[in-house]
Each structure stands twice: as C-alpha cells, then as structure tokens.
Write a structure and sequence with these properties.
This protein is of the alpha+beta class. Helices cover 41% and strands 20% of the residues. Strands 3-2-1-12-13-7 form a 6-stranded parallel beta sheet, sandwiched between helices. Helix 13 runs antiparallel to helix 18 (449-469) and helix 14 (380-387) packs across helix 18 (449-469). The longest helix has 31 residues, at 340-370. The protein is elongated, with a radius of gyration of 31 Å. Mean pLDDT is 91; it is low at 521-532. The protein binds zinc ion (ZN). Zinc ion is lined by residues 130, 132-133, 147, 149-150.
C-alpha cells in the first residue's frame, strides 16, 4: 500500500446524445467509477469526468424529425445519461457537455493556435454523399454501395475542407507508443495501433461547410465552417479542466487516464496524441481499453434495444449485484457475454452464498457467542491454540501480505475482475476458517473461552477489512457491512489492516445481505415424496408444522449427505437428521429459523434417532431449506 497521495484524472468517453444509455455506456462508466472510488479510498486526489457529445449531423436530423431544436434534443438526451448515472450511484466530479460555452472556448482557442502555427490548411475532401440524409458515409457504413437509410446509390462529391497535418506526426507517434509500453493497454490494442501505423497516416479533415451542417462549433478563422467530430469531441478532456493554464488543468492533466471501449481506439490512440502534440499539450498517461459485451453469445451491433434492456436489470437485481456482475465477468480488455442467467448465477454463488453467508455467519457468531462485542486482540499463546484446531488459514497474513498488494497491482492496471477474484479467494478462506474452528463447538467448553474469543476476533477483523476493500465495488453492501461495527465515516484503504477495531466495539447481526434469487420454482421435497395429487384439508391439518430454531448442527460421521441438528421448538428441544449436508455447512444453519414436521414418526438414520423433518425444496441439484421471511418464536404452529 502506498502512503503518499497520488493524483488521478480519469475520463469516460463523452456519450453521443443520439443514443439511449445502455449496457455498453454503463459498463465503461461503472468501471471508471470503481477506479475513481478505489483511488479516493487510497487517499488520492481524484478527478473523474464524464459527459455528452452533442454536435453533428445525426443530432440535427433527429431534432428536425422530432420538430425541436438540436439544443432541445441535446438537453433532453444528455439529461437521460445524467439520470442513468444517478440511478447507478455514479460519483463523477464533473459532467461536460460539448454545447457548453466553456467547451467551445477551449476548442476555438486550440484551433486558432494550430491555424496560427500552420498546422491546419484548406484542402479538398471527397466522399460518398447521400442527398437524402445530407451527409457523407464512410466505407464501413455503406451497404452494397448504397445509403443504409435510403437504400439509394451514393454520389461521390468533393468539397473544400480544413485539414489537420496529422501525417507529419507519424514517426513521432510510433516512437512514443514504442517507448511507453503501457501507454495503450492492454497490449493487444497497442499492437493493433502499431500495426495501423505501418501504413502511411493521412491528414485529418476537421471541418464541414455550414451550407451542409450548422450544428457545430464555428471555426474561429473561417465562420463559414464548423468543427467536425474529433476536434470537437476529444478536446472535452482538456476543456472540462478549463484548458491549458487553468489551475484545475495544471493540477490534473499531467495524470490523465482515459477509459474507452475498443471501437474508439483509433481516434484516442492516433488522432488525439497528434492533436495534443501539435497544440503543445503533454500526452495523457494511459489509454485503458475494454472489450465489447455480447448478449447471450450474440453480437450486439444491431440490437441497441437489447442493450437498454440489459441495463434495466439493475432495477430488478439492485445496483451492487449488477455492478459486481459486469466488473467480475469482463476480463479487462476482452469481450464478455451478458445474460440474466449468468448474472443470477453470480448473484447466488458469489454474493448470496460466499459473501452474504459469511457476513451472516460471522456477525451471528459474534453476537450469539461473543456477546455482540469485538473481543480483545488474542495473545500469541492463544493464537497458537487456535492453530491446533486444524488447518486454520492465517487470515491476517493472507489479507495484508497477499490480497492487498495483489489487489493494488490489479487495480493499477484496471483489472477489476482480477481484484474481485482475489478478494473472493479470501472470502472463501474466511468461510473455511469458520468451518475448521467451529466456534459453536468451542462455546460449549468454558475452558476454551480465550480460543473462542480469538476466533471471533479474527472474524471481526476479516469483516472490517472486507467492508473497506469492497466499498469501490459494492458501495451499498460494503456500507452495510461497516455499519455492523457502527462504522459510518468514509472508509480509508489505510484502515484495511488488522487492529483498527477497538476491542468492545458493538457488532450487530447482518443477515440477508444478498438474498438468493430463485430462477425456477423449487419443488417442496416433502410434498414431492408423497404421490398424492389432492389432500382433504382435514388430512393436511394432521401434519404438525412448526417453526424451529437451529441450535447446533454437525456432520453425521461417515455420511456425505446427513447433518445432525438440535432444534428448539420453544418448549422442547429435538434432535433430527436432515439430508442437506451437500448444500449447507453446519455453521450456515445455526441460528436459522426453519420449518419442521414435528409429529413425524421417529426414524433411525445412521444410528441417530431423528424426531421430525426439516422442510426443504430442491431442483436440479440445488436445495434450499424453508425459512421465515419475518421473525416468529420457535414452536409457532404453521397453518
Ligand atoms: Zn440517405
């Protein structure tokens, strides 16, 4: 962990207001937000910029079609992006719009400077033009030589336009990219750019005549033209800081890092460095490039509607689960597939099962067995006693010496998927720590009090550091974890070490952090066993169903499937055997309120007399015991 504060300026692309916010935009923005939160957590000086790109043919045309002005259209659609980021809990520092005066001012100042320096000249531009659309089409957009909108042949026309002398920077750019191996990362995109630069670089057309397009920033040296695309859009990264000379620019620009999707690597890795070089502005530090999302294995280029629907799943499953899924699922730089099934599966496995259960187990154990207080730090002798319990993971060492440095390395390279993978290995080890040490068993022996306290202490410390380290990735859940220790102040990465929780700190139970999502209706195992289609109500009432609290749970020796449970029915305790060991660790059940058939005839299972049956549903290898969605005392009759 670094002690000195660093400066971090992070940008997303500005999103074109002809689009609706969808999964693609959301992923880029969530990734940037996570990075910004992580660096704030580390104590860095962070500036995080996003915004909207609002000029051009498409906006002018869409506005004309809608019978409103281009500015009205831009206002409406820019607000839709801001609203999407508000709903996703994105904490940006600034939101730039290219129709703002602060942007226009800097674009025109840079253009004037380049014009004065002879970096821009008037030349001929030729292209495939559609008179219906009143625009040029690039080779890539043309379908069978025709306009993709009108399906009519295009006309080759030439007009005078202004050009930026980009070709003269080719040698400089190749040398720069080769000298800085991590300027463009991951490496595959750097290689792509170096490959592209093997061909001669053309000069860049930077204007459109006002006779064809008025919705843009006028060239300061010829007001019969407007600035075209990249000389307008890319400059937002500089204009939002106030431009060269402004205090915010001087503070943050030397630390600039861009996050983009792979479709706009070329403008960011070729045009933009040449523009900056010509304008006498230092190059950015890193260009971080991520891949595309596919949906259910299909390419998504022509299904923006599906991408919008994919983003809507954040409402169904919550921001944290959505955020976790996209950050964990996409290996930085590569394409990834999005599906609701995959999201639900990660939600159930990683969030509900691994993290949610750990938080529930650890807080419940500290409350039930430790009096709801953080125990004092154990002595060396007690620590040694804990090690005699079995193959107990050394959680402090693992977290501080392995997880933290590796997470730091991963985050330096924008590899959130890797950071989460490492954190989840740790979560798995804390769960194993509970299984091995069996605090509920230690609690039965007063002589083992100090060992029990040492175990509970390790669990408390583990939850505390997780509540801090998870905050950039799962902001809401992490805050709830910290709240179990009454930690309400903003977390700091420097506090993600053992020993920051004062002994005696109150600890509250936290269950249901991430409730499991059932994607199929489970069959009730008990009902499924009976081959009876319909039962008279009188028959049903013969079954005595009761709420039972699980007091202890332990594996049945020599059985893979069976757990022996002691449950409280209020006035009495029962021993029963349940075939759920492949689906629940014993500690997962302690403290749970379940539903049992109380008047079942006793049965002998593996030499144990079972007095009752736990109700559970199962399907396709998954099993869940019935629990209550509100608290009721043990023994309550279920009717
Ligand atoms: Zn057309």
């Amino acid at each position: 962990m670094t002690d000195r504060a660093r400066t971090f300026y992070l940008t997303t692309p500005i999103y074109y207001v002809n689009d609706r916010p969808h999964l693609g935009h959301a992923y880029t923005t969530i990734l940037a937000d996570t990075m910004a939160r992580y660096r704030r957590l580390a104590g860095d000086d962070v500036w995080f910029l996003t915004g909207t790109d609002e000029h051009g043919d498409k906006i002018a045309q869409a506005a004309a079609k809608a019978g409103i002005t281009p500015q009205q259209l831009a206002d409406r659609n820019s607000a839709a992006f801001r609203d999407a980021w508000r709903q996703l809990g994105i904490e940006y520092s600034d939101y730039i719009r290219t129709t703002e005066a602060r942007h226009t001012k800097v674009v025109q100042a840079i253009l004037q400077k380049l014009w004065d320096a002879g970096e821009i000249y008037l030349g001929k531009y030729g292209g495939h033009y559609c008179f219906g659309c009143e625009r040029f089409y690039t080779e890539k957009e043309i379908v069978d030589g025709k306009c993709p909108d009108h399906q009519t042949p295009l006309t080759w026309i030439e007009e005078e336009n202004y050009f930026f002398k980009m070709s003269k920077y080719q040698a400089w750019l190749i040398e720069t990219v080769e000298r800085q191996p991590d300027l463009i990362r991951p490496e595959r995109y750097r290689n792509e750019i170096l490959g592209f630069l093997r061909e001669p670089l053309q000069d860049l057309s930077i204007s459109r005549p006002k006779s064809r397009l008025t919705w843009g920033i006028p060239l300061p040296f010829d007001d019969t033209y407007v600035t075209y695309v990249w000389f307008d859009a890319l400059i937002n990264y500089v204009s939002a800081l106030g431009g060269p000379g402004a205090p915010r620019f001087e503070r943050y620009w030397p630390h600039a890092q861009h996050v983009i999707a792979k479709d706009i690597v070329k403008p960011h890795a070729i045009y933009w460095p040449c523009m900056l070089k010509a304008a006498g502005i230092d190059l950015y530090r890193h260009l971080n490039v991520h891949g595309y999302w596919t949906l259910g294995g299909r390419k998504i280029s022509k299904s923006v509607g599906n991408l919008v629907e994919a983003l809507a799943l954040k409402d169904k499953y919550g921001n944290d689960a959505f955020r976790y899924f996209v950050l964990r699922e996409m290996v930085f730089g590569l394409d990834a597939d999005f599906s609701e099934e995959a999201l639900v599966s990660r939600l159930n496995a990683d969030l509900a099962n691994d993290l949610g259960n750990l938080v529930a187990r650890a807080t419940t154990l500290i409350v039930n067995l430790g009096g709801g207080r953080m125990p004092a730090e154990p002595t060396e002798a007690t620590r040694a006693d804990v090690k005699t319990l079995g193959a107990v993971p050394d959680l402090k060492h693992e977290f501080e010496d392995v997880v933290m440095p590796w997470v730091q390395n991963a985050m330096d390279e924008f590899k959130c998927h890797r950071a989460l993978e490492l954190i989840w290995i740790f979560i798995g080890h804390v769960n194993r720590y509970v299984d091995v040490t069996q605090p509920w068993a230690l609690a039965k022996d007063p002589a083992k009090r100090s060992v029990l306290d040492a175990v509970l202490h390790a669990l408390g410390e583990s939850l505390n550091v997780l509540g801090i380290l998870l905050s950039p990735f799962l902001p809401e859940a992490a805050a709830r974890i910290r709240a179990t220790f009454s930690q309400a102040s903003p977390p700091r990465l420097a506090d993600a070490v053992w020993g920051r929780l004062t002994p005696g700190t109150a600890v509250a139970k936290l269950t249901g952090l991430f409730p499991r999502v059932e994607d199929k209706t489970p069959r009730v195992a008990a009902a499924a066993r009976a081959e009876v289609a319909r039962v008279p109500i009188d028959d049903f009432s013969k079954v005595d169903l009761r709420v039972a609290e699980v007091l202890t749970a332990e594996p049945v020796p020599k059985s893979k499937k069976l757990l022996k449970l002691t449950v409280s029915l209020g006035s009495e305790q029962r021993t029963l055997v349940a075939g759920i060991a492949e689906h629940y660790a014993p500690a997962d059940l302690v403290g749970k309120k379940v539903v049992v058939v109380a008047n079942l005839e006793p049965a002998q299972l593996m030499g144990i007399e079972s007095n009752g049956m736990v109700l559970a549903g199962s399907t396709e290898g998954k099993l869940a015991v019935l629990t209550l969605d509100r608290d009721l005392p043990p023994g309550t009759k279920i009717t």
